[in-house]
Specification:
The chain has 746 residues and is of the alpha+beta class. It contains 17 helices and 33 strands.
């Protein structure tokens, strides 16, 4: 086969309509063979003829999309020196745009014999590994445009492609669990009616199934085991045999954008699926081990690991940094995604040993004209020393706020903590972010995520129940800050059932009415349960999938979630772009009066109340007439004002509404104990008895002298639609799970 010299850039396989250019980096290789793989597994091997700046390259005319290929890299095999080249292993292209097949755990994938790890293994891995696929770059995007929702207007929905869609009755069976299912009107209809603005997809980069799990009948369900940073995972494709997963993924993004929903990817650039020194040789290890991985300085046979997965990518290597930046740009420019959530992001900042917010990776992101303009969300911790970095990322970044999660969970299970901590989290966590010039949008607030209990399980279990994972319940977090209400797991006790339903509403209300960017985990709006399993990373089955067969309580919870998201969307007082004027330890209070914290008696909080560790009852006044930041056109923003009454106590508490200075008349828009109270009007200084562990939200219109309101009048909507969510028995206002009816305030 005749090969042309080709070009060293771009890396990967690039089809131009006439043929394909192949380019791969390796500083240590002596020779690299391009391997073309036929459908029957037969190989055609061609030496790459050119090398420029350690990039080996060549061009093959007539090689078209759908062609499977791999590489065999000849070079030193000296683990003690950090080199592991082995031409007996067929290797994936690090820049592959699509990947075929899966690994099967065969001994040939490893560099040692199972019976004797000291013995070199030169068995050929070709029939047991994955292959790269040449893809077509062409796709009809039509008039696709990114929604570009501002952070303060965003509601993020964390979702798993298969978990969300595998059991959806509105999706054709052959599409369930795939990108095409995510693009189906039944799924998009649910997301749109819910009111979310972005889906944050759990890993969709090509990942590897762990043989140790498959041997136990389990799978790598979550996907935090990446091997292809440019390739959509083939297991989520309905028709993946020839690289069709790329087209399907693009169709999903296009459909989401048409519904005004952004697509954010959960990405894993901190490690790869090749594991530690006993892991398989699939790609990077056999191409240039010492350039891609961080090795132990004193013993380069072993890998430096801050992720708990066996290896960490070498973040001071220019080739690793190029790989990551090229990948990010590819997903934005070619796949049209709208942002990224970076798994264990603290590892990306470890240019040397410590987490450094001035590391080369952050510098590259900051100056990149493409990547710097999309949503960048950090999981701000890893498993290394000093890895917990909440509040420590640069100005462009937002962060999963783990302190928000912990504080709100503790409040609703009545654990001792100060009111100042709770107030700070509700007001945007300025104590964490303001010192670096960031705003409330830096805080991605969440109560639950994929890692841990679902919302329903958070209020139903004190302890994890992970026996099905095959690790004798040792895996998963043991300290969950959860409370079961008195009985572990399912119960027929009506009082506990009502309490759990109310607690779910309490969490959703707190989350969605806090300053910052709220994130909901998929299925929490439906009361999804994992039966107490808080680590379903290996449960690709009904344990982790969303069950769309809803009972009456679940339908009510869905309607409630839509209502609160709609309330947030309608009122800028809940989604301010800037912090309140005052200090975080007093919940942002200042002379401006944009927020005021009041005792249950309706009096301004004194200093002692802020310091006590038993503060569980509080009122918050959010002043719609004192929003400092202008709207997008520079005009003053004026909104309704709100009173939010929190009773986190285990007893009923008598609250007194504040005096007429705050408002003479208040209308109930939300009561997590009794939604039938919605629309009721109360005068100032009225006494209200709040059920134990409940929230009541009241509103009044802006002062009469103020300009027109920038949002929907909550009092008027509450009065006119009070029966929609909880009307008379059998009153057909309930929305369905597929989003056939919109919730109030939408």
């Amino acid at each position: 086969m005749h090969i042309w010299p080709g070009r060293p850039y771009p890396l990967g396989a690039t089809y131009d309509g006439s043929g394909t250019n192949f380019a791969i980096f390796s500083e240590v290789a002596d020779r690299i063979e391009l391997v073309l793989v036929e459908p029957d597994g037969a190989e055609t091997r061609v030496d790459l003829p050119e090398v420029d700046a350690f990039v080996w390259h060549g061009y093959l005319p007539a090689i078209a999309p759908g062609q499977r290929y791999g590489y065999r890299v000849h070079g030193p095999y000296d683990p003690a020196a950090g080199h592991r080249c082995d031409p007996s292993k067929l290797l994936l292209d690090p820049y592959a745009k699509a990947i075929s097949g899966q690994v099967d755990g065969h001994e040939s994938l490893y560099s040692y014999r199972f019976a004797d790890q000291a013995q070199r293994n030169t068995l050929d891995s070709a029939s047991h590994t994955m292959t790269s696929i040449v893809v077509s770059p062409y796709f009809d995007w039509g008039h696709d445009r990114p929604p570009r929702h501002e952070y303060h207007e965003s509601v993020i929905y964390e979702a798993h492609v298969k978990g969300l869609t595998a059991q959806h009755p509105g999706v054709p069976p052959e599409y369930r669990g795939t990108y095409l299912a995510m693009a189906h009107p039944a799924v998009i209809g649910h997301l749109s009616s819910l009111g979310v603005t972005a889906v944050e997809l759990m890993p969709v980069h090509q990942f590897v199934q762990d043989p140790s799990l498959t041997a136990k009948g389990l799978t790598n369900y979550w996907g935090y085991n990446t091997i292809g940073f440019f390739a959509p995972h083939n297991g989520y494709s309905a028709f993946a045999s020839s690289g069709q997963q790329v087209q399907e993924f693009k169709a999903m993004v296009k459909a989401m954008h048409e519904a005004d929903i952004e697509v954010i990817l959960d990405v894993v650039y901190n490690h790869t699926a090749e594991g530690n020194h006993l892991g398989p040789t699939l790609s990077f290890r056999g191409i240039d081990n010492a350039n891609y991985y961080r090795l132990v300085d004193e013993d380069r046979t072993h890998y430096f690991d801050t992720t708990g997965t066996g290896n960490s990518l070498l973040m001071r290597s220019p080739h690793v940094l190029q790989l990551i930046m090229d990948s990010l740009r590819y997903w934005v420019q070619e796949m049209h995604v709208d942002g990224f959530r970076f798994d264990l992001a603290a590892t990306l900042a470890r240019q040397f040993h410590e987490v450094d917010r001035l590391s080369a990776f952050f510098d590259l992101v900051q100056q990149d004209p493409v990547v710097s303009q999309v949503k960048l969300i950090a999981e701000p911790w890893d498993l290394g020393d000093g890895g917990y970095q909440v509040g420590g990322f640069p100005p462009l970044w937002t962060e999963w706020n783990g302190k928000y999660r912990d504080t709100v969970r503790d409040f609703w299970r009545s654990e001792p903590s100060t009111l100042g901590e709770f107030a700070s989290r509700l007001s945007g966590s300025s104590d964490l972010y303001e010192h670096t010039g960031r705003r409330p949008l830096a805080s991605v607030n969440f109560v639950t995520a994929h890692d841990g209990f679902t919302l329903r399980d958070l209020v139903s279990y004190n302890d994890k129940h992970n026996e099905a994972n095959g690790e004798e319940n040792r895996d998963g977090e043991s300290f969950n800050r959860s409370w079961n209400g008195g009985v572990e797991g399912p119960t027929d006790d009506p009082e506990i059932t009502r309490l759990r339903a109310r607690q779910q509403r309490n969490f959703l209300t707190t989350l969605l009415l806090s300053q910052g960017v709220p994130m909901i985990a998929h299925g929490d709006e439906l009361g999804r349960t994992q039966q107490g399993n808080n680590n379903v990373y290996c449960q690709d089955n009904a344990t982790s999938w969303v069950d769309w067969d809803l009972d009456a309580d679940q339908v009510d919870l869905l309607a409630f979630t839509r209502l609160v998201i709609g309330l947030r969307a309608a009122h800028p007082v809940f989604r301010r772009r800037r912090f309140f004027a005052g200090s975080a330890e007093h919940g942002g209070e200042s002379a401006l009066g944009d927020v005021v914290w009041l005792s249950p008696g309706g009096q301004h909080m004194d200093a002692g109340a802020w310091q006590g560790d038993q503060a569980r009852m509080v009122q918050v006044f959010l002043n719609g007439d004192a929003i400092r930041e202008p709207d997008a056109r520079g005009s003053r923003v004026v909104d309704d004002s709100f009173l939010v009454l929190f009773n986190g106590h285990y007893k009923k508490v008598l609250f007194t509404l504040p005096g007429a200075d705050y408002g003479t008349e208040w209308t109930v828009v939300l009561d997590t104990h009794a939604m039938r109270n919605r629309g009721r009007v109360h005068r100032s200084r009225t006494r209200l008895t709040l059920e134990h562990r409940s929230v009541v939200v009241l509103t009044r219109p802006p002062e009469r002298h103020a300009p027109a309101v920038s949002g929907i009048g909550a009092a008027e909507v509450a009065a006119s639609e009070a029966a929609v969510v909880h009307g008379p028995a059998g009153g057909g206002g309930r929305p369905t799970a597929d989003g056939a009816r919109r919730a109030p305030l939408r």
